[in-house]
Amino acid sequence: MENSLNRRGFLRLCAVTAGGVVVAACQQSLQDIATVTQAVALGTPVPLTKLNLTGADQDVWMWIKPVEGVVSGECSRLAVEINGSQLDTQSDGKTFRAQVKLSPGANKVSATCMQPDGVQIRSNMLNYTERLRQVPTAVIDSALDGEMIVLDGSKSQPAVNDQSKIVDYLWSAREGNPDVLSVDDAPLTDEVRAQTLRLIPPTSDGEYYLQLKVKDDVGREDRAQIYFVVEQGKARFPDYDHENPAWVETAIVYGIIPTKFGHPAFKAITERLDYLADLGINAIWLAPVNVSPPGDYGYAVVDYFELNHGYGTKEDFHRLVQEAHGRGIRVLMDFVPNHTSAQHPYFLSAQAGGPDSPYWNFYDRDENGQPTHYFDWTHLPNLNYANQEVRNMMIEAFAYWVREFDVDGFRVDACWGVKQRRPDFWPQWRKELKRIKPDLMLLAEASARDPYYFDNGFDVAYDWTDQLGHWAWQIIWDTYKLRTLSYNLTDALTNGHEGFHPDTL
Length: 505
Description:
Low-confidence stretches: 1-31
Structural class: alpha+beta
Number of helices: 13
Radius of gyration: 29 Å
Mean pLDDT: 90
Shape: globular
Largest sheet: 6 strands, mixed
Number of strands: 30
């Protein structure tokens, strides 16, 4: 009996007789088996109540998560616990449920049943890892008050799920502004502590960037940026949803396949930045650099928050970005939000666990429950953007590389797929990214002939026809004849005489 009880995990104990007491305990947790063992030793009736949380250990991309379980037997009190604290729990005698508020990092979730005889039964333990940041959110409102520029941080929000308060508002000017900004006739050369900032408008034309850093009473912080424009000596605020930053309008982008530059790639690219600058470019677009399976070009992402280990470390990547900035070169990442690799841990869990996997609903599925994909991309299952956790995860993934590494934009792979399945996602995504860094370039892998992309978050799109991947200029090269050249050129340049969205690049 003792050897059986020391087995790892779940033990199958069926019809074990000890001291005249028959124990029928199959698939019990070690906690339950310990209870059974004690009862057998005392020769008392064994409790028959069983308690089980459904689901499995998981990453969580929301702050409040529903938890459910099943119970058989009688409980005088039943409660779900998180990190030792009991929660309001609803039960119909067969199932139970509760809403758990998560803390950053590791969270331990279980349930307890107090039986009428005073014996407590505990369920299996689930480990929930909260992946979102618990920090305040810096928000900047802007207005012109007569001749003054007014920036207001009062709508900044404290961190969710706790009682913290914002206690500090710190303003600073970003490097590279056309002229020094002034507050009350004093130059804004250091941080200024104020909830609201009133600036004297500069007279030198150009874009002026400022940053707000908010801190809460436990030391956590967040940053937001904003810019205004001075034209012919007069200040104005741009249409942030549609107007492009000046550098985007004149971008000359050099595409880099990291492996072609040497090994390790990030260091090799850094060593050639002077050569790239001499070409006259002002931005580099890196082919996908996130983790993907061996031999894959990079569009089958296995981890959105890690880099391909063969390209170098995060320190190498950070240095690449900073060295590029020192030469006036922006850095764009190629990012893949439409799908993951079939080797992504979430998809492997969903395939192994079926509907019981916590990641089953992370993937878009057909009427038969099979994951969807485009073309013959069976190894690239589509993400389910109807799931709030997926939307939160992807926005956080993009934002991570802006906040932590100061990248300057993204070429967004297969964004047309997300448009088809969840067309309202991209404006939400743009709002958060531009809050952090308003001069990002957001490039859609989609046709610039579709005004949707310029109305819903993107600055730039491809010179395609209405067919995916078909270049508008292709007919010119395929049928190069003088008598049709003028017509075909005009058709390509004018979208078939239909014109383009006014914000199109």
